[in-house]
Amino acid sequence: MRGKILNSIVSFSLRFRGIILILGCLLIGYGLYVFTQVKYDVFPEFAPPQVNIQTETPGLAPEQVELLVTQPIENVINGVTAIESLRSASIQGLSFITVNFQVGSDIFLNRQLVAERLSQIAGSLPQGVHAPIMTPLTSSTSTILIAGLTSSKLSLMDLHTLAEWTIKPRLLSVPGVAKVTIFGGGKQQLQIQFLPDLLVKYNLGIDDVIAAATHATGIRGAGFIDTPNQRITLQSEGQSLLPELLAKTVLIHQNGENVTLGDVAKVVVAPEPPIGAATIGEKLGIQLNISEQYGANTLEVAQRVDKALKELEPTIRSQGVELVQNIYRPAKFIQAATHNVLISLLTGAVLVVIILLLFLFNLRVAAICLTAIPLSLLTAVITLQFFGQNLNTMTLGGLAIAIGVIVDDAVIDVENIFRRLRENLEKKRPLSSFRVVLEASIEVRSAIVYATFVIALVFVPVLTISGIAGRLFSPLGIAFIIAILASLLVALTVTPALTFFMLVRKSLKKEEPPVIHWLKQKYCILLNYIEKHRLGTLICAMILFLVSIAVIPFIGGEFLPELKEGQFIVHITTIPGTSLQESTRLGNNITKALLKIPVIESVSNRVGRAEQGDDILGTHSSELNVVLKSSTSQENKLALTKIRETLALFPGIITAIKTPLTERIEETLSGFTSSVVINVFGNDLDMIDQKAKAITQILSKIQGAVDIQIQSPAGAPNLMVRARKDDLTRWGFTPIEVLNAIRSAYQGLQVGQVYEGSRVFDVVVILDSMERKNIMQVKKLSLRNAIGTYVPLQE
User: Residue 564 has what pLDDT?
Assistant: First the structure.
């Protein structure tokens, strides 16, 4: 039955060869069109359906964040349907939760269910904690571009303002952009930096400053007036928008004189207390981390972002700001991968032509065989696009592997037809050309079909791999299988039709090609030798088989092959509690040393974290983006060696070096940027720290183990402020009054907002910046009770 179907297909293709060739040409045209429209990405969507929840917790220590924010949110979310795993991290000022859902679940439904649960808990979190938010839905590789801003004219705060109010809104309007995270600088605020000594002098308290600032910066709607013909909206103004106006706000009026905010505080435009910093090269600056939406076309989005930045560049440069766009750009890797595949295609085509010319000694035959390559590959691209698959390094890799296989069917078919046509010329009564081509094609058809399906079945186990490995490598197997099945279809239809069109009624040489004639002679000699030494041949084959089996345990294995991205991410961790300034200084010194390596083009650094950023690092952690001048294998290895040698010159730091894509995959696998992760559980944090250090010492002795680090090192230094109940009662304070005073002094308390054009800035009451830098001043912070007595915090 199968034979009759195959015979009918070949016969139909020969009888209606004109239609088949026209359809083949249309397929190539449509395939080229789809090739230009299909989505391009770095990797397939390898991450499971995932929801990230961030909660800003200003002023709270990590233990408080874990107990008061992270655990309650986890408890509420745990009951959501289809949750597979849940990870969380609590650092000073931030709670971060990652919820992984079962593969195949609807990510949009998952987000809706999580949003409903979050709405239930938002009102029960401690006062001052922001409402939990789900970060925008992004692709697996997330980051599409990292750009930098530096300036010798503008301050870091002004750079941050430019990025937040000019560049970020324009980039967010680009189709395909999910979010823009700003690293470095400081968010502009109108700060009322009170001076404790002056408050005592004028018999005022922190609450008086907060109340006056709130009244001076508040906004109130005024309603409207209805006349017989019109409705007129009332718009009230009177808000103190400028520092000099706010400084004139009256606190008290005594003996005919006013005490203003300016008398007890510095009213200035200043950046908020920083949580991160960034450098580009050796200059302090701003980094913009641009993430793409889920399912977006990476190349298209990158091109749109480039266009938007190009439009903004005149405005940026007019303010004395330099824009740097080459910090990180995955589109370059995609373009390189696409270029490599095209080079592989061209190289394969050239090699096929050379081999076919040598063995068949006929240019027309080689041309017929070559048509199988574009037809099969373009058919595979059309099929992938139809089923919603994009082109990425894995699907392109599958197509590249298939190049050497897809031409086999056509070669076997054409060679047999070519041989039968040549033999038919030697017969006394030659058969019709149609019958010769049909019989020659049918003669090898079963072998071609069986061989094709056997090769396809070899890749079927790849499709059954589960987890992230399956989501990564399945597209490779799918692309390969589709390509070789397409080559079988081409060999059944287009190849016989094209062979009849190009070989029939053409002059064919009767003698065999010289290379085939020579090989046959040598093969006959070898075959005769093997027949005389059958036992020795079998023994040699068995020995080779056993040796190959014995070598397998000594072959190294990796989850992913080495990706030549031309870029490394260097993680640097110092002692917990290291200040932002010290981490930045250390990063600058390392940057200077790395830039001396000839193969390195640029280095940029990020310290700490950004608001609503993907990385939740403390001020003791840094990430350096190292860009190489080229991405050859030799330069990658040389750069990696030199980077490790350079980092070894800086004592007291823990380092890890990854390529960006490898790091992203490892983060998805375990939540950490490491190939192997060991978790230590327990209730005693000190004991956990001891065991973690002991495990680290053991791992460091293992051959080949590098970049060993404790992800959760010993806690950062804390200055504990404990309220004594008896003393609070004696002086007439409540605990919350003391806690509010400390928070206002060192974290800052937002009391209102002011606007400047379309920009809106927070008004914050906070302790003077010099006072905040002195640890000893904490215990001297004076609080005023209800009867006007000033009591130092330590009393």
Answer: 67
CA dihedral 488, 494, 496, 502 (to 10 degrees): -140
Token duo for residue 6: 């195959």
282 burial class (0-12, 13-18, 19+ CB within 10 angstroms)? middle
Strands 759-767 and 749-756: antiparallel
> Residue 26: pLDDT band by 50, 70, 90 thresholds?
very high
pLDDT given for residue 707 in this prediction: 62
Tell me which of 285 and 424 has the higher pLDDT: 285
Cβ neighbours of residue 658 under 8 Å, at least 6 residues apart?
568, 569, 571, 666, 673
pLDDT at 563: 63
745 and 781 Cβ atoms separated by less than 8 Å = yes
- Mean pLDDT of all residues in 731-741: 80
Helices (H) and strands (E) in the chain, counts: 30, 24
Taking the CA atoms of residue 8, residue 14, residue 17 and residue 21 in that order, the dihedral angle to the nearest 10 degrees is: 80
Per-residue pLDDT, averaged over 14-20, amounts to 86
What are the start-end ranges of the E strands in 560-673? 567-573, 600-608, 621-628, 654-658
One-letter amino acid at 738 equals V
φ, ψ of residue 324 in degrees (nearest 5): -115, 120
Are 269 and 160 a contacting pair, CB within 8 Å? Answer: no
SS (H, E, C) 312-362: HHHHHHHCCEEEEEEEECHHHHHHHHHHHHHHHHHHHHHHHHHHHHHHHCC
Contact status, residue 703 vs residue 711, Cβ threshold 8 Å? no
Alpha carbon distance 546, 548 (integer Å): 5
Q: Is the pLDDT of residue 565 over 90?
A: no
Calpha distance 433→401 (Å, rounded): 36
CA 448/CA 405 separation, integer angstroms: 11
**Rounded Cα gap, residues 45 and 171, in angstroms:** 23
Q: Are 377 and 363 in contact (CB under 8 A)?
A: no
pLDDT band at 543 (very low <50, low <70, confident <90, very high): very high
Tens-place pLDDT, residues 624-671: 888 888 777 777 788 888 888 888 888 888 888 888 777 777 766 665
Phi, psi of 186 (to 5 degrees): -165, 135
Instruction: Convert 519-534 into a string of H (helix), E (strand) and C (coil).
Output: HHHHHHHHHHHHHHCH
For residue 215, give the H/E element and its range.
helix 206-217
Cα 254 from Cα 521, distance rounded (Å): 119
Sort strands 188-194 and 231-233 into parallel, antiparallel or unpaired.
unpaired
pLDDT band at 345 (very low <50, low <70, confident <90, very high): low
Check whether 174 has a pLDDT greater than 60.
yes
**Closest to 743 measured CA to CA, from 73, 232, 60, 15:** 60
pLDDT exceeds cutoff 60 at 595: yes
pLDDT, one tens digit per residue, over 433-459 is 788 888 888 888 777 888 888 888 888
Give the closest residue to 569 by CA, choosing from 652, 627, 637, 484. Answer: 627
- The CA distance from 706 to 495, in Å, is 54
Q: How many Cβ atoms sit within 10 Å of the Cβ of residue 320?
A: 12
